Structures are given as C-alpha cells and as structure tokens.
C-alpha cells in the first residue's frame, strides 16, 4: 500500500517549498490528462492577461509556448470533444487556424531550442513542458519582470557584492531555509543576482503557512513583486540557486586563532636593498606587497637571484597573519587597490631575459596598514588609493 502523508508531513513539505497536491482518480487516459493540463495553463494565462497568448520575439517565452500549444490544439480536432466542455473562453470552438508565423512553425521543443533552451524531443500530445502548479507559479513570477526604474540606486550594491565575492569578503552557499529570505539579502537564481529590496507584512496562506510580498531587484535592471514562497521555490528548483553570504559574516583576519580556525597565510610588506636609482630615490615608500602560505623567511630566501625581488636582498617591514581566506583573491584585491601607484619597471633576470615585476608599489607603509584594517572590517570596497595624497579616499557615489 502506498504511504499516505499526514497533516504534519504536508506542513513540513510546504515549509520546505514543496507543493503537495492530492492525486485525483480519473477515468481519462494519461494522454487526455496531459492535454487538459496544457489547455488549463493556457486558460490561466488568458484569465491573468485578458487575451489569448500571442506569437512574437518580444513576447515572454511562456506566452510564446502557450501560443504554439493553442494553435496545435486548434488543429488537433480529435481533442476538441475533450476540450470544448472546458472551453468557457471560446479558445477552441469556432476559431479557424491562422496562417503559420515563425513561432507557429515550431513546436514546444523546437521553439525552446530556437530560444537557446535545451529540451528533449516530444510530441504536442505528450506536453512534456506542462509544469506542476508550484513550478508554474515560481517560473512565471521570475519571468514576469518589469524594468526597474530606479535601478541606479541598486547598481552600486550589485557592484560592491561582486567585488566582495571576488575578494572573499562574501561567499555563496546552497539555499536552505525560507528564513534566509529577508530584506537586504542577496541570492543567485536563474543565473542572476537577486536583491530583496523590500518585504511587505507577512500573512497566512490558505494552508496556514506564512508568506509575504517582496520587491526583488535583479542585476540586469529588472524587478519583480513576487511572493516569498515563489522565490523560495525558484531557489530550491534551481540546481545553481545560491545564497550570497553577508559581508559581516566574519573578519578576514584575526589577531589570534579561534577554535577550529586554520592559518591561511601571511601578507608581507618588503623594502628592497637594491642599488637601482629608482629604488634608492624612493626606498622609504617603495614596497613589495605579497601573500604567502608558508614562512616569509623562506619566501625571500633567494631574493638576490629572483628578478621579482629586483635581484637584491629585502627587508621585512610588516606582516599580517590571516585565517580562513582565499589568498589569491586577497592578493588580487590588495594589488587592485594600489594599482595607481604600481612601479613601472623592467629589469633583466640573471639569464638576461626581460622581467616586469608586478608587486612593487610606491605607497607609504601607513597606507598599507590602513588598507589592511579596512579589509578586516569589510569597508575596503568603498575606498580607493589616491597617489596624489598618498592616502585612501572614499569612492564617489
């Protein structure tokens, strides 16, 4: 005997974003059920938009699919006796087939392929793209977006989040719970970053579950007033759906290790003892900034024969221990900050080959120390280095 779900099971599945629908006993064949399900999707579109679905490249992908499907159902007269009793909108009865357009010449799968969406071959009567009510609600609310008129307010937030992802201040992790959806949170759904800008007051659904209307901004300049549970379903359904962690989830550095922390490496700041004129003239402000996973002493042991160290011994002037951080991203961040003051020099290595050292910067030690502190507290992405004042300054906007 098949297992029956209890009320508690249904509540738990609903809380997890899984739509629970009771199975109905029917005398219809599976093929007839699929045809009716596909027709009911078209009817819901008509109820929502006040018109039949239309063809055209400017139309939403689902509308174009519904338009193709409706044309096919009008042509397949063997299904008219099945559909006409349900056709209260006169979508089938008395409608003559129209001349095929570009969309009409394509079935569901061919149209999806034309739009760059993979699909398995299927006949119209199989209706493989008929989705469950949960999938339909989530997909339509994600798809039915509109232009975000005040996107200039949100674009700097998306830019900052991307910078913080690049540098390790933020990470992504699989979406798990509805409670993670809150104003100010970022997600990745459908391959785009989504920002929950607003959340209306929560209410109870007919099933007794909490829900709320959201204003969700997407990084392509669109927005959607979707329900919280619709975003939850979309994130669960999307294998690549992710939650972007908050930048305040923890410091990049610590003065000491906490239980469970593992040392990730060391930022080192060096001065060169080279006799090159450019070095002698700027020795107090010319620094090499790097990150190593090992001992700094071992890293600089062969400086005298290494062109990246200007073929000279070096002096260690500062080090910063770091824990649980991506070293490569951190080093790239530091180098990007001080890029306006990067030393432009080319020297020959010990074999006579030209080398352009990339980690030397004309930056005072105080500015480097300040940058590290701002990386620690997560504010570095709002600053840039000004070579004229030799200080970090607030970014405009």
Q: What coarse outline follows from CA principal-axis ratios?
A: elongated
Query: What would you call the structural class?
Result: alpha+beta
Annotation, overall tally of beta strands:
17
Let me know the average pLDDT. Answer: 78
> Biggest sheet, open or closed, and with what strands and sense?
7 strands, antiparallel
- Cα end-to-end separation: 65 Å
How many distinct helices? 12
The helix content is 25-40%
Radius of gyration: 30 Å
As laid out across the biggest beta sheet, the strand order is 1-8-7-4-3-9-2
Q: Residue ranges: pLDDT <50 for 5 or more in a row?
A: 99-107, 111-132
Give the SSE order as H and E letters: HHHHHHEHEEEEEEEHEEHEHEHEEEHEE
Strand fraction: 15-25%
Give the total of domains: 3
Protein name: Bacteriophage T5 Orf172 DNA-binding domain-containing protein
Organism: Thalassospira profundimaris
Domain Bacteriophage T5 Orf172 DNA-binding: 281-375
InterPro entries: Phage_T5_Orf172_DNA-bd
Give a written overview of the molecule.
The chain is an alpha+beta fold and 397 residues long. The chain folds into 3 domains: 103 residues, no CATH class; 106 residues, no CATH class; 132 residues, no CATH class. Helices cover 31% and strands 19% of the residues. The protein contains 12 helices and 17 strands. A hairpin with a 3-residue loop joins β7 and β8. α2 crosses α3. The longest helix is centred in the first third of the chain and has 20 residues. The radius of gyration is 30 Å and the shape is elongated.
């Amino acid at each position: 005997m098949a297992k029956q779900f209890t009320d508690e099971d249904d509540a738990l599945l609903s809380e997890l974003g899984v739509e629970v629908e009771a199975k109905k006993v029917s005398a219809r064949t599976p093929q007839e059920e699929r045809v009716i399900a596909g027709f009911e999707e078209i009817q819901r579109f008509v109820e929502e938009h006040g018109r039949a679905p239309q063809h055209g490249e400017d139309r939403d992908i689902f509308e174009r699919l519904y338009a193709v499907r409706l044309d096919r159902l009008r042509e397949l007269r063997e299904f008219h006796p099945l559909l006409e009793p349900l056709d209260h909108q006169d979508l089938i009865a008395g409608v003559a087939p129209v001349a095929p357009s570009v969309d009409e010449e394509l079935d569901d799968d061919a149209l999806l392929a034309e739009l760059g969406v993979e699909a398995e071959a299927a006949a119209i009567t199989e209706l493989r793209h008929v989705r469950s009510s949960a999938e339909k609600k989530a997909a339509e609310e994600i798809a039915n977006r509109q232009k975000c008129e005040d996107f200039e307010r949100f674009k700097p937030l998306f830019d900052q989040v991307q910078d913080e992802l690049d540098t390790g201040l933020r990470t992504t992790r699989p979406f798990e719970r509805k409670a993670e959806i809150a104003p100010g949170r970022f997600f990745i759904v459908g391959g785009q970053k989504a920002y929950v800008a607003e959340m209306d007051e929560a209410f109870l659904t007919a099933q007794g579950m909490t829900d709320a209307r959201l204003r969700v901004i997407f990084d392509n300049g669109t927005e959607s007033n979707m329900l919280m549970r619709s975003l939850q379903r979309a994130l669960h359904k999307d294998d690549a759906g992710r939650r972007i962690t908050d930048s305040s989830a923890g410091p990049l550095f610590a003065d000491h290790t906490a239980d469970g922390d593992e040392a990730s490496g060391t930022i080192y700041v060096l001065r060169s003892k080279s006799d090159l004129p450019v070095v002698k003239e700027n020795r107090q402000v010319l620094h090499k900034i790097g990150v190593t996973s090992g001992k700094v002493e071992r890293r600089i042991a062969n400086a005298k024969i290494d062109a990246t160290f200007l073929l000279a011994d070096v002096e260690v002037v500062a080090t910063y221990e770091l824990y649980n951080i991506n070293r490569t991203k951190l080093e790239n961040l530091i180098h990007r900050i001080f890029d306006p003051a990067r030393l432009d020099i080319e020297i020959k290595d010990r074999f006579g080959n030209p080398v352009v050292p990339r980690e030397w910067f004309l930056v005072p030690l105080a500015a480097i120390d300040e940058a590290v502190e701002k990386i620690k507290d997560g504010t570095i992405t709002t600053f840039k280095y000004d070579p004229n004042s030799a200080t970090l300054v607030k970014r405009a906007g």
